Amino acid sequence: MRASLIHAHHARHVEDLDFWLSLANQQGDPILELACGTGRLLIPLLRAGCDLTGVDHDAGMLEFLKSSLPTEMTSRASIVQADIASYQFARQFSLIILGCNTFNTLPAVKRAAALSKAREHLLPDGVFAVSMPNPNILADLPAYGEPEVEEVFTHPQSGNPVQVSSEYSKEDDWVRLLWHYDHLLPDGTVERSTIETRHTLTGVEVFLEEAEAARLRAVELYGDYDRSKFAPGSPYLILCLKPVP
């Protein structure tokens, strides 16, 4: 149920797909997607003809993904349950993707391990592309954000509305974000599911230093999926990293 709700919610957001498809076309196969989840990015990339390996630690997410894959795509997709800091493959990749605001949910030690693993699995001219919310915007948030309804979508099983709201609070060096999924039932009752994520308040320069420590250099810093240059007020921070020889 959790995986289907998350997929129904996030599959509606496609503003980044052209960026990833363009990057995949630029770099070519093979491609590795880390934290692939239910396949919001992976399935469109497969439809575009890419040779893909998807990694995620969550068995429920991967079960949903596998059940969603059209038969004709299965020969071009390898789906592996593993941690993004400890996977191991016999081949290297032209492009490694870590999208969906995942990187800055990791503590520093795990970020370092994830960067090192990506460096190990990149071809000499490969790219590791990482997207996250702009750290400057997170740092400027007030201490607490009241619950706020963001959108409504149809429940994938019942067909009833699901109302999505979010709230956040700053705790030490993190922003704690709660996503509430309110399943609105015909009898007027509500079934609530809540998913928690945490985003580090680590700054841009620290992320770049961590990449350099893993022998990865930033060749591009984008601020949005239209490839506009990163600026303090950009909505996102998108790092394109290449291995240092």
Which parts are unreliable, with pLDDT below 50 for 5 consecutive residues or more?
Answer: none
CATH topology descriptor of the largest domain: Rossmann fold
In sequence order, what are the helices and strands, one letter per element?
HHEHEHEEHEHEEEEHEE
* Quaternary status: single chain
Question: What does the overall shape look like?
Answer: globular
Mean pLDDT: 95
CATH second-level architecture of the largest domain: 3-Layer(aba) Sandwich
Domain count: 2
Round the Cα radius of gyration to an integer and report it.
18 Å
Distance between the terminal alpha carbons, to the nearest Å?
45 Å
Order the strands across the largest sheet as they lie in space.
3-2-1-4-5-11-10
The CATH homologous superfamily name of the largest domain equals: Vaccinia Virus protein VP39
- Per DSSP, the total helix count is 7
Beta-strand proportion:
35-45%
State the major sheet. 7 strands, mixed
How many E strands? 11
Structural class call reads alpha/beta
Provide the helix percentage. Answer: 25-40%
CATH classification class of the largest domain:
Alpha Beta
